[in-house]
Amino acid sequence: MTVLASSFVQEVQTWAYNWSPVVMMLFFAALIYLMWRTLKVMPKVKPQQIKPSSGQSVSFADIAGVDDAKGELREIVEFLRDPREFEALGAKVPKGILLHGPPGTGKTLLAKAVAHESGAQFFAQSAAAFVEMFAGLGAARIRRLFAIARKHEPAIIFIDELDAVGGRRGSDISGEKDQTLNQLLVEMDGFSGGSGRLVVIAASNLLDKLDPALLRPGRFDRQVFVAPPDVKGREGVLAVHTRDKPLGDVELGLVAAQTSGLTGADLANICNEAAIFAARRRAPQICARDFDSAIERVIAGVQSRRVLNDHEKRVVAYHEAGHALCGELLPSVDRVHRISIVPRGRALGYTLNLPAEDRYLKTREELLDYMTVLLGGRVAERVVFGQVTTGASDDLKRVAEIAHTMVHDFAMGTAGLGRSPDGGVRLSETTLRIRDEERQDLTEEARRAAQKLIVAHRPQLDALAGELLEREVLDRDAIDRVMAGVPRLERAPGVGLRVVAAAQALEGAPGVAVTHDAQPE
Ligand SMILES: Nc1ncnc2c1ncn2[C@@H]1O[C@H](COP(=O)(O)OP(=O)(O)OP(=O)(O)O)[C@@H](O)[C@H]1O
Ligand SMILES: [Mg+2]
């Protein structure tokens, strides 16, 4: 028996000895096959090469309102087309241009225009394509992108949404993103050859979040802020997007004035919505009222089917009348363009203010006035009905935000000039407490101002609310009728609010006589 067993073991051993190389080879073959399959499944991301003559091309003429960025990019295009003039003076092509700004201001569009106009080879890839689960793959893709571009110099590389890989290093646990970014830094230093006629254009929303090494001269030496357009720019964008639409009695300048703060993408959306409104009316042309509806829809949201009961309607009417009244009386607040108590989006009603011009700086008083307008709705509810509702939650949130930034970011309080806690400066408990009190003081000051205005102008409040309940939407003319003869307050430097007599009340001396002080204490 034992002899039989031992001979069997021996047989197995010899078999294994003879066949082991074959088994091993089969095993490796299976392994290689498996890896090959995995590689096939992995997404292949090739950089997109855009030919200047491609069908969907965008030209610089299609972009309005971002002249600074256009100027910078035009220069690069010139440089790549004919470098002699610049090289004669010893100038080098800038290596990188970083377009940054809020979403929808036209960064991707600018890059497309460069692709069309430069005559250079253009390679585009979104930074998100570099982010992959497999370590080192992102870096390899960057290497490949630059290698391909270098072969076709003069060339432009466009990396969209740079934030995806450009964030500060050290924050990514896996290290894959850092590796990708390091590779980008190395490639931009251009150690691996090329004639130096390779420009990298990148687009990003948040400059603050990007790694400082990316931003130093020699990499993205030019950083161009692509801001939302000003009033002239908005008119230009509207003109671009209505080029192929039949327009009726529309004044684009007026539409531009009504859309302060909106980006190019918003304006494009408004033009499209206006065309849809006109088509729904089966009108042959797009008219001013289509644009009005479109603006309302884009700014305030889609009209909702919520039905309010009579009491709720009264509350909303007084709430909006409170906002509008404060807005009409205070000197630095934009004039009210329209009040509505038709529910839209999440809002039950809204007051639309129209800035007369684009403004870039605000004083403490102007911010306080704005807070007063925001609190006007809540105060009107309290004055009229003796109770408050949940309707003011959005206003209260914005008031809190403004008060916070006033004290912490703009140092409009008294407790030191240090930046906010999130600004990276440590503040003592005492400073924080003082600032907290200051915030509350500012809010209280605004609330008292609103209370004073509303109590003193109760007849106008009632009239506005009454008209709103009757007609649901009040335009500038209707508001003017209610406010006729009521003087707008004025603020002399260093003094609180004063009531200035309206022109018709004081013959010969328009807007000077001081009747009584309405200084918020
Ligand atoms: N200055 C402009 N002139 C004309 N159209 C514009 C302009 N800015 C934006 N648009 C319109 O808005 C659309 C979106 O713009 P784009 O894709 O360039 O935004 P972006 O700045 O790249 O935004 P994001 O940061 O979100 O990527 C464009 O396709 C275009 O129709
Ligand atoms: Mg973009």
CATH topology of the largest domain: Rossmann fold
Number of domains: 3
Q: In CATH's first tier, which class of the largest domain applies? A: Alpha Beta
Beta-strand residue percentage: 5-15%
User: How many strands, what sense, and barrel or not for the largest sheet?
Assistant: 6 strands, mixed
Number of helices: 18
H/E element sequence: HEHHEHEHEHHEHEHHHHHEEHHHHEHEEE
Tell me the name of the CATH homologous superfamily of the largest domain: P-loop containing nucleotide triphosphate hydrolases
Task: Give the overall shape.
Answer: elongated
Question: What is the average per-residue confidence, as pLDDT, rounded to a whole number?
Answer: 81
Any idea what the CATH architecture of the largest domain is? 3-Layer(aba) Sandwich
DSSP strand count: 12
The percentage helix is 40-55%
Cα(first) to Cα(last) distance is: 112 Å
Query: What does the radius of gyration come to?
Result: 32 Å
Poorly predicted runs are 500-521
Task: Please identify the structural class as seen in this structure.
Answer: alpha/beta
Cross-sheet strand order for the largest sheet = 1-3-4-5-2-6
Bound heterogens, unique: adenosine-5'-triphosphate, magnesium ion
